[in-house]
Amino acid sequence: MKRLQRLRRTAALRDMVAEVGFGQAQLVQPLFAVEGITAAEPVAGIGEAVRQPLTTLGAQVDRDLAAGVRQFLLFGVGASRADDGAGHEFTCAAVETVRRRLGRDATLWVDTCLCSITTTGHCHLHSPTGEADHGRTLEVLARHAVDYAAAGAHGIAPSDMNDGRTATLRHALDAAGHDLVAVMSYSSKFASHLYGPFRTAAGSAPRHGDRRSYQLDVRSRRAALEASARCAEEGADLLMVKPGMSSIDLIAPITELTGKPVGAYQVSGEYAGLVLLAREGLIDFDAGLLESWLVFRRAGAAFIITYGARRAHDLGLV
Ligand code: PBG
Ligand code: ZN
Question: How much is the pTM?
Answer without folding.
Answer: 0.98
